[in-house]
Design brief:
It contains 12 helices and no strands. By secondary structure, it is mainly α. Helix 6 (83-100) packs across helix 7, helix 6 (83-100) packs antiparallel against helix 12 (197-213) and helix 7 crosses helix 11 (170-191).
Length: 216
């Protein structure tokens, strides 16, 4: 890596860490480009050299909230051989972490910059590899997939291969599962502590189990 590339990486990290600091202490809704630039020790014009807009920056900063999920996912399924059981366990873990950090997860998967998810995650984990964890190929592909639908489809393909769902229904099953999840995450994001995470998780898992059961 050249000195210029190292400098760029360092400045990116300063901005991302400043945005994360504001998220932690003031909330995602209080992040502004000026606050981030001031905290990072640069002006707003410099920030625009690295991020398209505020939404783009917040998406980078939000990846931090995936760390605990990333570090635990392989451990949770390491002794599970059945693909359907693995899938349910991974969704339960995903619900636990995403409902607990609903604003950050919604930002990454469903806001304006979500069409750049693959690029954002690659850049982020290049800077913060300790947040990614070590996984087999399927889990690594899933964690860095280009969209939440693509990530879920990678896992659903294993259910097709093991006969749990028919290949012809893969896309519609994927669409239904992700649409239902988006609605629950949106509810949690907007109601905060007024929504019960365990209840939302139960709704999500029950829906997945129903869909897969009736797809056979």
């Amino acid at each position: 890596m050249t000195n210029k590339e190292l400098q760029k990486k360092r400045i990116l990290m300063y901005f991302i860490e400043a945005a994360q600091n504001i998220m932690e202490n003031e909330g995602i809704e209080n992040i502004t480009l000026r606050k981030v630039a001031d905290m990072a020790g640069y002006n707003s014009l410099t920030l625009y050299k690295y991020f398209k807009n505020l939404d783009h920056l917040i998406s980078f900063a939000s990846i931090k909230y995936f760390k605990d999920y990333n570090l635990n996912i392989s451990r949770c399924i390491e002794n599970v051989n059945d693909e359907y059981k693995k899938y349910i366990i991974m969704w339960k873990l995903f619900c636990k972490h995403s409902f607990d950090n609903a604003q950050a997860f919604y930002q990454v998967f469903f806001n304006l910059s979500s069409d750049e998810l693959s690029y954002i995650t690659k850049q982020y984990y290049d800077m913060f590899p300790e947040d990614l964890g070590i996984h087999d190929s399927d889990i690594s592909l899933m964690i860095t997939g280009e969209s939440i639908k693509e990530r879920n489809k990678i896992l659903l393909n294993n259910l097709v291969d093991t006969g749990y769902i028919p290949a012809k229904d893969l896309d519609i099953i994927n669409d239904i599962i992700i649409s239902f999840y988006q609605n629950l995450l949106f509810l949690k994001k907007n109601t905060g502590k007024n929504s019960d995470d365990d209840e939302l998780t139960m709704k999500m898992i029950s829906s997945i189990e129903y869909i897969i059961k009736h797809a056979k």
